[in-house]
Every structure is written in structure tokens, then in C-alpha cells.
Amino acid sequence: MPYRAPVSEFQFILGHVVDFAAVAGTQRFAEASSDVVDAILTEAGKMCDEVMAPLNRNGDLHPARLENGVVRTSPGFAEGYRAIADGGWIGMAASQDYGGMGLPQTLSSAVHDMMSGACLALELNPLLTQGQIEALEHHASDAIKDLYLPKLISGQWSGTMNLTEPQAGSDVGALRTTAEPQQDGTYKITGQKIYISWADADFIDNICHLVLARLPDAAPGTRGISLFLVPKRVPNDDGSVGAENALRIISLEHKLGLHGSPTAVLEFSGATGWMIGGPHKGMAAMFTMMNNARLNVGVQGIGIAEGAYQHALGYAQDRKQGITAGPTGSIIDHADVRRMLASSKADIFAARAIALDCAISIDMTHAGQGDEWAARAALLTPIAKAFGTDVGIAVSQEGVQVHGGMGFVEETGAAQYSRDVRVTAIYEGTNGIQAMDLVARKMMDGGEAAYRLLDEIETQAEAARSSQPDLAQPVWSAAETLREATEALVAESDLQRRFAGAVPYLRAFARVLGAHYHLRAAVAEAEAGDRTALARYYIDRHLPEHVSLLAQVTAGADSLLALTPEALSA
Q1: Residue that is last in its domain, among 217, 251, 281
Q2: Which residues are catalytic?
Q3: Which structural domain range is residue 202 located in?
Q4: What residues does 231 pair with on adjacent strands?
Q5: DSSP class of residue 407?
Q6: Residue 162 domain-assigned?
Q7: Are 352 and 358 within 8 A, CB to CB?
Q8: Of the residues 281, 296, 323, which one is the last residue of a structural domain?
Q9: Is position 544 within any domain?
Q10: Which of 53, 281, 489, 562 has its CA 20 to 30 A from that of 147?
Q11: CATH assignment at residue 265
Q12: How many domains does the chain have?
């Protein structure tokens, strides 16, 4: 079954489940009318279906390779990238001052969802460039903006982020890359970075690396980190591509999946770079890029889940087995196969609605609609990232299971989804770190942003009692249970003890949010139908999971911390 971008699903969610009308009602995004939204989604969907999806298997079977210091990309990727760039999809949310469309982040996230389902390995390239565009828009000098942004937005150049080093993974403060100031205002960057996605490509004129490094007077830890823009080729005064910079690709990683996306070890040997943001302010500038990426990595998981689901659904509809008894004669009549497909579809909807609501909160923040929107976006970002990628992993695994023995055979393509998506729970901050961020930094307001969101869920459930009473009551009760657990979490001053329940707390929050959006979908449908049936399935079977998850949160940390390293190795 070929991939088909779920355009109508986005139209329904944006029109009936999340408040995109509020975004379109702002002065900044007034041009995002329903006609524009439909046109954007339709054209992006067509590009994903016709151009990107046919490349997905190529990237897996014919990986990017390093040849005489140059990365040779997978067959067809150059043409696919050109279609993305020529369509304006890289700069759709970028400033119009530099050639972007100035459209809402919400639409950009929807497009990334479709691109990820079509070909995640290729989608990762424009995703990284968009993150760099946003970082430069917020933190670069006017001269840097004028030179780099038009080329990044047009797709003539592309961008990467360089954080990780062999000895410094999640502990970014342990990095050793150095930056020596020069008399002309540039810096010489020296060090090694690993896990650099799309560090090079044979179809892009210049690769622009955002690199974290230390100045000579840098303090230890993250407080002493600065950010630098280090291009593969140093631009000439007229903006044309100039001489090779002092950096090279040492090797490409041999990965579980995403074979079409070259992941490199990069070495900088006194490479010329320009500071972005102020001295020792690198983490703040890089987090602009990382926060953009974290939401869209969650979206990557959802996109892969969609692709894996469609693949499994097609197989279940076609596969005939004599042991099944039902109207189709195919394995989709089997109760357990039906369960796997229903669970997948219900979770994809929940994760997608969470991600789009997060994107709307970001757009409302950018439109100057108040600090409460910023707090809401901050709260939803780790949930969108972690739950979206968890759903991607779970649904792709179920896709293999639906295929049975054929799922274990690479030629069917089912396993590729599972291999490709696995890294999304790791990069841009592991899902465990997302959960820790949620229960620590995102609760520094005493839980106020979380309580406002729970108020919204309960208000919606109250309003739905008349039309969907059997669905509204469990959602309202779940929100109350989550509120009580949040109060207990906020009252715990020991962060290590908070962290013990962080992952189950995040997942419980996602479960309740998912039920909230499913309820809204059922109310919007107005009468019993497919969306109401799916909402009932989710609320009956997935929502109850929040009880056991929150029991882990409120149980405290004693039973976990009692398992010492010695006990675990005994």
C-alpha cells in the first residue's frame, strides 16, 4: 500500500480539535485563511506522495556513503531535495524579509509530519535547516542574517547543529571544542563533533554548521559555552561560495536505520567561524534551534507511525488466511489484528493533536498573545516530543507484528519504519530527559501552566456531558486524578525523587490530553460515526493507563532508589 499523506486528517484536526482559528485571527498570521491552509496541505501532500515516498526504500537499500571525503547521497535524494526547496517548503515559516513565507509553525509541523511519513531520512535535512534559520533570526547579527538566511531559506545552502562530542553526550557542559578569537572578529574553531546529521551532501552548495565551543576564558560547564556559525566553504564578500574551510568528515556512522541520512564525525582544525549571540551565551541560542527541533522530532515519530500504520493496514486488508472468519476473509477480521490497528490509529490521532496544539501555542507566542501561551508551549513541547516518538516506535513495532513472519523479512518494508524511527526517542534530548524537563523546569511556576491546561480539559468535558456523557465523565475524572498527582509532584522538593516518576508522569499527561482531543473530535462529529467510535476505543482502552502510571508517580522513589548499583549488578 503506497503512502498517502493524511491531508483530510489535518484539515479536521485544525478545523475542529485544536484552535487554529485563534492563530489565523492574529494580525501576524492573518493570511493563514482556510483556503491557504487547504492549498498548503494539498500541495505538500502531493509532493510527499509523488516525490518523497518513492525514495524511502532507496535510502534504506542504498545508504549515503563517504567517497574521497565527499558524501554521496542515496539515489533520487538530490531530485527529492530540489522538489522540497523549489516548493518553498524549507522557508515556509521563515521571515518574509529574507524570502520566507511567514506562515505559522503549525502548518510547517503538519508538512513535516507528512514528509516524515513519506521519507524520514530526507525530511531530516530541511528540518535541521529550519532550526538553524530560527536560531539565526533570533540571535545573529544583521550581516550574518543578510548573507545566510536567503540561501538557507531557498535551499541553496543547508544547516546542521553540532553539540555532541565523544565524551559529552547529554552532558553538553563537558564539551572541549575551542574557539580562538582573531583580529578580524572571526574565531578559529578546533575540536571534534559526533552524530552530525546531514553533515554533508553532494547536492547542496554549502553546509552551514552551528557549533558549540569554548572561548579561552570560558567557565566550566554550560555557562562557558558559546555558539559559532562555521560554513563548509567560507563565503566571498559577494556571498558566493569561497574556499574550503578547515573542517572535514572523518567517517559516517553505520546506523540501525535512517540509512539515507548521512550521520558524520566532523573534525574542525582551526576552521573559521562567526559568533552567534553573545560570549558564553551559546546554550540560549542553541536552545532556540533545539526547541524547534524537539517539537518536530515528535512530529517525525507521528509521521513514521502514519506510514507504518498505512503499510500494516494495506497488508491486513490484502492478506487472506483460512483461519479468519469475517466479511473480508482477510486478517483484518481477526480480533487481535483489529486491536493492533485500532490502537495504532487512536494513538496517532492523540499524538498528532498534542503536537499541533503545541505548535499553535508557539504561533500564538510569536504573535504576541501573552506569556500564558509561551508557558503552554513550553509545557507541551516535552510531551509532544516524547509521546510522539514513543507512538512512532510502538506503532511501527505493531506494524511488523501485523505482518507476522513477513514483517521480519526486510523485503516487505515493514521493518524499515521500526528501524528508522528508533533514534527519535534518543536525539534532540532523550525521552527520559524530556520527562525530567517536564517535572523540573516546566514546574518552576508551581504547576500553574499545567493547572490551566487541566482546567481547559475539565471545562471541555463538562460542556460535552450533554452530547457525549459516557465519554465526558472518564475524561473529567482522569483530569482530576492528574491534577492531584501534579500537586503531589510540585510539593516534592527533592528533584531526584521527582525524576523517579518523571517518565510515567509525562505519559499519563499525554494519555489524558489524548482523551481530551478524542472527546473534542467526537463532539465535533455531532453524531455516532467513525471518530466517535475511535474516541470510545481510546477512552475505554488507552485512557485507563493513566491510573497505573500516576500510581508510580505518587508511590515515591524509595523502591527505585533502594536498588543500588550493587543490587542491580548482583
Answers
A1: 281
A2: 428
A3: 158-281
A4: 208
A5: G
A6: yes
A7: no
A8: 281
A9: yes
A10: 281
A11: 2.40.110.20
A12: 2
All residues at 6 or more sequence positions from 393 whose CB lies less than 8 Å from its CB, including other chains: 301, 418, 421, 422, 424, 425
Q: With respect to residue 245, please indicate whether it lies within any of the assigned structural domains.
A: yes
Cell of 540: 475505554
Domain CATH code at residue 465: 1.20.120
| DSSP letters for 104-129 | -HHHHHHHHHHHHHHHHHHHHHHHHH
Q: Cell numbers at residue 445, please? A: 511556576
**Residue 167 burial (10 A CB sphere; 0-12, 13-18, 19+):** exposed
SS (H, E, C) 350-399: HHHHHHHHHHHHHHHHHCCCCHHHHHHHHHHHHHHHHHHHHHHHHHHHHH
For residue 107, give the nearest of 119, 130, 89, 129 by alpha carbon: 89
* pLDDT averaged per 10 residues, the chain (length 570): 94 97 97 96 98 97 94 97 97 96 97 98 97 94 97 97 85 87 97 96 96 92 92 94 96 97 98 95 80 90 98 95 75 95 98 98 96 96 98 98 96 97 95 97 97 98 96 98 97 93 98 98 88 98 98 92 92
Q: Which residue has the cell 565527499?
A: 70
CA distance 509 to 17: 18
Residue 338, domain member (yes or no): no
| Residue appearing with cell numbers 509523488 | 50
> Which pairing describes strands 178-181 and 187-197: parallel, antiparallel, or unpaired?
antiparallel
